[in-house]
Write a structure and sequence with these properties.
The complex is a heterodimer of chains A (486) and B (275). By secondary structure, chain A is α/β, with parallel strands linked by helices. Chain A contains 19 helices and 15 strands. Chain B is an alpha/beta fold. The chains are: A alpha/beta (486), B alpha/beta (275).
Amino acid sequence: MTKRDDTWRVELRAQMKAKERTNLHRVEMPELDSEYRSHIRNEEVNLGLTPQMAIQEAHRCLDCANPTCMDGCPVNINIPGFIKNIERGEFLEAAKVLKETSALPAVCGRVCPQERQCEAQCIHVKMNKESVAIGHLERFAADYERESGQISVPETAPANGMKVAVVGSGPAGLSFAGDMAKLGYEVHVFEALHEIGGVLKYGIPEFRLPNHIVDVEIDNLRQMGVRFMNNCIIGKTIAIHELEQDGFQGIFVASGAGLPRFMNIKGENLVGVMSSNEYLTRVNLMDAANPDSDTPVYKGKKVAVIGGGNTAMDSVRTARRLGAEKAIIVYRRSEEEMPARREEVIHAKSEGIDFMTLHNPIEYIGNESGRVTHMVLQVMQLGEPDESGRRSPVEVPGKTVTVEVDEVIVSVGVSPNPLLAQSTPELQTSKRGTLVVNEDTLQSVSMPVIFAGGDIVRGGATVILAMGDGRRAAKAMDEWIKSKLK
Amino acid sequence: MNKIISKENFSANVVKFVVEAPLIAKARRAGHFVMVRVGEKGERIPLTIADADVERGTITLVIQRTGVSSTKICALEAGDYITDMVGPLGKATHIENFGTVVCACGGVGTAPMMPIVAALKKAGNRVITVLAARTKDLIILEEQMRENSDEVIIMTDDGSYGNKGLVTNGVESVIQSEKVDMCVTIGPAIMMKFVSELTRKYNVPTVASLNTIMVDGTGMCGACRVTIGGKTRFVCVDGPEFDAHQVDFDEMLMRLGGYREQEKEEMERKVLHKK
């Protein structure tokens, strides 16, 4: 829509020298006071940029002839295109540019690891300067549009009379649904839970991604004609072959990585030891910390969270907000190897979270009623790099510590949801339980009608990679359906 | 939203609902369950499907008032709607002609046993159902069980109906009088534990249908995990039926009590004081 040689962009570039642009300092995201927020469950930590801050930050972008930042974006957002619209004050136009390729800009602006993707490829970084705050700007444009009440609905092609099904309403499914609706398909999204949004609702807490923001993005898809059916499990409520009989031309499976992993150590089934999925689902999806909610949740005083990923950070910061006096991250490697976003680690620390890195639980001890009271941690040290490229954790022989806890949240990863594969034996899965698909087209190798993406294929990744899969699968499925009908 | 077509009170604390759910009715098999939520602040709880009518597009649920959520559901009337219902979940019961099968159920385990009894009978088994309750008024579904069983043995703790004694006394009397090839047990965890201990003694293969705490019911939370033969399994996706002799019932009982204090507090605040 917006091109680099549009007159307004040419003029905008000429208004300020590149040198002046690179000399500007990167904007700081305003945030809630850390002491205040560590006791408030539902208030977002990052407050968003003001229009002045956003315009100022947008000036830093050089509008490169070869915008390498876009190579870093799994959904290929026209990054300079939207940033330059912010610079000239056309915030609604900026939002439109985002929505050309992303079904969930307000979500991505909040939860994407930009520092490893678009921002890592920014020209400023190559000049040893801080990258343009692309993520903050993305969030700004999406928020501005939402709050303006003038939300644009992306254009859709005339209905082509064909329908496709989506299994799961998380980021991969929503992204796929948006692209297929744009192409003129009748899109039906089936969700197992009672809420639409998948991990965006049950997993990521309110203080990082408020549910009402997810709902607005879902509503936008509804306005594009996407239909949602909650409380429906494909493979259980409706079988895959029934969808085919019902005239669905293609099925995109994005059912996520449902199954939480445990470490299979002694005492892991004690009362008070649970998965981060359970803990976060209780608090986020079921609103269990609210006294009006019928779902109970433990509000531990001494809470340990095992793991170093974003989900572990979400869990430990939630525990702190629910009243934990001591909330500890227990991680077997050092802080450097932590998979969590840097921002989450910094936020956690400023909220009073303790970090026990180079420790790994080997046993939980409980009282006579079966409640966890202590954890035994093996002290670790760093060894040679493993296949992930990170230095591997190695036990320090004979060295353990025992720590008092009343709640333990295990956040060491997830496995793919088994329900669809269990009920569809012809669907080929890997040893890990992920669906086996063609790497380029994401088409199932055993059932051509099925395409799949997100965690059901990757095993456990990020929102934006899932969204990228949704886009790729939409393109490939569209081509496949059209070639089939020729 | 699923409409309640009819409601019947089986006893003071046990209610039978017929609920509109055409897709679930069509897909369900004996042993499956649904997750149900009532009200926007409601909890998701698992309920075994007791029966289904594919033509009418309905399923039958039999619910015992125990806590806040079951009390809320039981307070609904015909014409009301259940906010959310999803299923059928879990693995269906493995049905084949085993020979002679004893179906041992008690309390609220009786309703989910009904479709299993019917399916076993249909597969050609000799089905002996042992129906247990504390007292006569709590015996439910006797007639339906008689229709589908070759023999029904009623056990009450106080001897007010049938034979005086526990479910295990009934099961043992059958095992001692004829060759039993298989036992299926559904009921409170403590009951299943004792049935399992008894049948282990007699080397009778036994299946128990476990009803644990669940949040999502689709494999996501792991709240339902149990130890089966030394390995952790999820009741929602690996069960709900397991080889009873492999189940760590003591751990299951311990985990079932995990939220008891919160439940008691909620019950007092939301149900008892409200009246």
